[in-house]
Design goal:
The protein is of the alpha+beta class. The protein has four helices and 13 strands. The chain is globular, with a radius of gyration of 18 Å. Bound molecules: heme C (HEC). The site of heme C (HEC) has 27 residues, from helix 2.
């Protein structure tokens, strides 16, 4: 274990293997798992008043988690090169500071981070008014778009692009480094398997996967999400 944060009834820790997990402070029960394919976790900081948790890793990314909803709110490559060694929020929690191997300290206004995207991806669409979106699109924007692009070609997001995902075997996007669970898996992604993935949650449906655990409880939300993905991920 590299870093430990003590919250209100929970403990969050970051580990050498890249694990970022939250456990119940009393029972030790696993609550949340934000582990991505990036190791080691080198820095963590928590701003109690705004409930923001920030995590920095050896590959130069900062991930931010809202500890009220336990969702990843931001995830971006912060360093041009090298790791994120140190993280600190400003007193108000409105600015996140990061230090790495460069002899400068970076400071990002948290509110502007939605638009911060050095890869030039599509995170801007995040800012669109949620009311103008269909339920399926809203599900995708809120729960998937931080990690998945819909475009063809290489993506710098944490997960593989979902372009062309329907009818595709799991684990085959060229150039993406999958976990052993998906690499060589027999799953073919379609309405049924994607529905099962978020009905059961990745931790049950594809145990050992790098995709953080999350369940979409309402069948209608899953159906809407799948309908949206069918239209947005290109031809089968
Ligand atoms: C925090 C990041 C993150 C979020 C959020 C996330 N995913 Fe993923 N997803 C991943 C990662 C990482 C993988 C690769 C898993 C592996 O290699 O084990 C993945 C893999 C997948 C795959 C398999 C792709 C393939 O090529 O086999 C599908 C399908 C998928 N995600 C759909 C979704 C959908 C739909 C959502 C939103 C409901 C979502 N994911 C949310 C990170 C994420």
């Amino acid at each position: 274990m590299n870093r430990l944060i003590v919250g209100d009834g929970w403990l969050a820790y970051g580990a050498v293997d890249g694990g970022t997990r939250v456990i119940d402070a009393e029972t030790g029960e696993a609550l949340y798992d934000f582990t991505l394919d990036r190791r080691p976790i080198l820095s963590m900081t928590y701003h109690a008043e705004t409930g923001q948790l920030a995590i920095g890793d050896g590959e130069g990314h900062i991930m931010m988690v809202d500890t009220e909803t336990w969702r990843i709110t931001r995830d971006f490559r912060a360093m041009r090169q090298g790791p994120v060694w140190a993280l600190a929020f400003s007193t108000e929690g409105t600015v996140i500071h990061a230090g790495g191997i460069d002899d400068v300290i970076y400071a990002w206004p948290v509110a502007l981070l939605d638009t911060y995207d050095p890869a030039g991806g599509d995170t801007r669409s995040f800012l669109r008014d949620a009311e103008t979106m269909s339920n399926g699109e809203r599900q995708f924007m809120r729960k998937c778009s931080i990690c998945h692009s819909l475009e063809d070609g290489p993506s710098r997001k944490a997960g593989p692009t979902l372009h062309g995902v329907f009818g595709r075997k799991a684990g085959v996007v060229p150039g993406y480094r999958y976990s052993p669970t998906l690499d060589g898996s027999d799953i073919v992604w379609d309405d049924t398997t994607i529905d099962a993935l978020f009905d059961e949650g990745p931790d049950h449906y594809i145990p050992g996967s790098k995709m953080p655990m999350q369940v979409i409880a309402a069948p209608q939300d899953r159906a809407d999400l799948i309908a949206y993905l069918r239209g947005a991920t290109g031809k089968e």
